[in-house]
Amino acid sequence: MKLRSVRGVAAVVLLIAASTVAGCGASPQVVTLTIHYSGFDRTEVTIPRGVPVTFVLVNEDPIDHEWLIGDEEFHEAHRSGTHERHDAVPTEVTVPALETVSTTITFDEAGSLAFICHLPGHEAYGMVGVLTVTG
Ligand SMILES: [Cu+2]
Q1: Where do the structural domains in the chain lie, given as residue ranges?
Q2: Tens digits of per-residue pLDDT, 51-106?
Q3: Ligand 1 centroid to 110 CA: how many Å?
Q4: CATH fourth-level superfamily of 28-134
Q5: What is the C-alpha to C-alpha distance for residues 109 and 96, in angstroms, rounded to an integer?
Q6: 125 and 66 in contact (C-beta within 8 Å)?
């Protein structure tokens, strides 16, 4: 009896997963990045051009972090920037302590971009990764 109810739950979960995938024309890619001890668990990510990518940013630290993605000019501006929080632009995200934030971005140009946490000292500590967009 107990086994049967567990199996029922598993079947429901599978159904939900299947309908989610079937419901979207172009299935969005999901990239999960976990932040732990002020570092990203993946520092090299490759995605295709022109496809929506949902970045799931999991902050396991008891302090806030940021996830900002762009080219060198973008990052240079943010190194000296004064924004306290980021939540209006998909490429600039604040990830509060112990929270998970998702952002979906479509990159239309192939190339290489960096994702960096620009909170004081975090970039120097190593909160840097590279996103490669393939053509
Ligand atoms: Cu940080």
Answers
A1: 28-134
A2: 999 999 999 999 999 999 999 999 999 888 766 666 689 999 999 999 999 999 99
A3: 27
A4: Cupredoxins -  blue copper proteins (2.60.40.420)
A5: 30
A6: no
